Amino acid sequence: MVILGIDAHKRNHTVVAVDEPGRPLASRTIGTTTADHLRVLCWVDQFGPDRRWAVEDCRHLSRRLERDLLAEGETITRVPAKLMAHVRDC
Predict the structure, then answer these.
(1) How many CB atoms lie under 10 A from the CB of residue 63?
(2) The dihedral formed by the CA atoms of 23, 2, 66 and 61, expressed in degrees to the nearest 10
(3) Residue 36 CB neighbours (<10 A)
(4) I want to staple 57 with a disulfide (CB 3.0 to 4.6 A). Which of 38, 43, 53, 78 is the partner?
(5) What is the pLDDT of residues 36-50, one digit of tens each?
(6) Would you state the pLDDT for residue 88?
(7) How far apart are CA 25 and CA 62, in angstroms?
(8) Residues 6+ apart with CB under 8 A from 47
(9) Distance separating the N- and C-terminal Cα atoms of the chain
(10) In the chain, what is the greatest distance between 2 CA atoms, to the nearest angstrom?
(11) CA 59: distance to chain centroid?
(12) Is residue 69 classed exposed, middle or buried when 0-12, 13-18 and 19+ CB atoms within 10 A define those classes?
């Protein structure tokens, strides 16, 4: 299984693919339009169908992304922002 972590921002989103032990496989920064989201789905196809999306729970920034991914049948888990806070300390 591959986990696709999303760092959502107002003008772009960064996608990081990691394997089951948590080793980074690849990353890509995309725009925030539906067309950008559909293009990133083509990019993640290289990791196979066994994948999950982990999206930081900041819906004001990730709402469209979540909607587009769900419409394409992707599986999404929202990660509470407080669980991500310690990463920002580095």
Answers:
(1) 11
(2) 0
(3) 16
(4) 78
(5) 999 999 999 999 999
(6) 46
(7) 23
(8) 2, 4, 17, 25
(9) 27
(10) 35
(11) 13
(12) buried
- What whole-number distance in Å separates Cα of residue 55 and Cα of residue 9? 11
Distance CA 17, CA 68 (A): 18
Amino acid, res. 41: L
| Residues of the chain predicted below pLDDT 70 | 82-90
CB atoms within 10 A of CB 46: 10
Token pair 């999306």 is at which residue?
53
**What is the distance between the alpha carbons of residues 80 and 43, in angstroms, rounded to a whole number?**
26
Q: How far apart are CA 40 and CA 63, in angstroms?
A: 16
Extract the tokens encoding 5.
């972590």
CA distance 6 to 28: 10
Whether 72 and 24 have beta carbons less than 8 Å apart is answered as no
Q: Is 63 left (phi over 0), alpha (psi -120 to 50) or beta?
A: alpha
